[in-house]
Amino acid sequence: MTSMKFADFDVSRETFERLETYLALLQKWNPAINLVAKSTVGMAWDRHFVDSAQVFRIAPKQIEHWCDIGSGGGFPGLVCATLAKEFSPEMTFTMVESDQRKATFLRTVVRELDLNATVKSERIEMLEPMKADVISARALASLPKLLEYAKRHLAPGGHGLFLKGTSFRAELVESLENWRFNHKEYASATDAESVILLIGDIERV
């Protein structure tokens, strides 16, 4: 598999500069609050930024509200919000992160990059339904739990976008014990053993 680079996304110089500012903030804050694994900071463009940007490419069109749960260092949500500033400026984003220090980092990035995003420093279970068109998550929970969150917080016709690793097929099988849904699998551009799952029509069995 050929590794996708940020050049493949054909973004403007302004967008690229925003992402460089984001990376600099990540490198500055990470030693104190462990936003991403220390071993991945040196390869952050591929491991975190490209990995997140590919989600934006897969997302359905005509999105008004995108909610990223368990945002952590902002992946994939803040990267998608940065791309949306150029390509879909009307789109609004909500980042949900219960860790107060990480939420402060997210707010700093939102402010510095002037993104159309807000940050909620609460547990996703405690939030009122978000009525989002997209719910995204990366390395947050098993698929059955993500479907539970998505069912509560998606608007009618909305979709989940979940980055998943090698266990995704087992998680799909487990999910079908209690859920009915449609899904598409997209091969990850950054990891041959990972996928992005686009999931819709989520209903409990």
Give structural notes:
This protein has a seven-stranded mixed beta sheet, with helices on both faces. It has six helices and seven strands. It is globular, with a radius of gyration of 16 Å. The chain is of the alpha/beta class and 205 residues long. It is 39% helix and 25% strand. The protein has helices at residues 13-33, 44-58, 77-87, 100-113, 143-153, 168-175; strands spanning 65-69, 92-96, 117-120, 132-138, 154-164, 179-187, 195-204. The protein has a single domain (11-204), classed as Vaccinia Virus protein VP39 (Rossmann fold, 3-Layer(aba) Sandwich).
List keywords for this structure.
7 strands, 205 residues, 6 helices, alpha/beta, Rossmann fold
Count structural domains: 1
DSSP summary: helix tally: 6
* Terminal Cα span: 37 Å
Strand and helix order? HHEHEHEEHEHEE
Specify the CATH class: Alpha Beta
Which CATH architecture is right? 3-Layer(aba) Sandwich
Low-confidence runs (pLDDT<50, min 5 residues)? none
- Indicate the overall shape: globular
Structural class: alpha/beta
Mean model confidence by pLDDT: 92
Write down the Rg.
16 Å
The biggest beta sheet is recorded as: 7 strands, mixed
Number of strands: 7
Enter the CATH topology name: Rossmann fold
Please bin the fraction of helical residues.
25-40%
Give the neighbour order of strands across the main sheet: 3-2-1-4-5-7-6
Strand content: 15-25%
CATH level 4 superfamily: Vaccinia Virus protein VP39
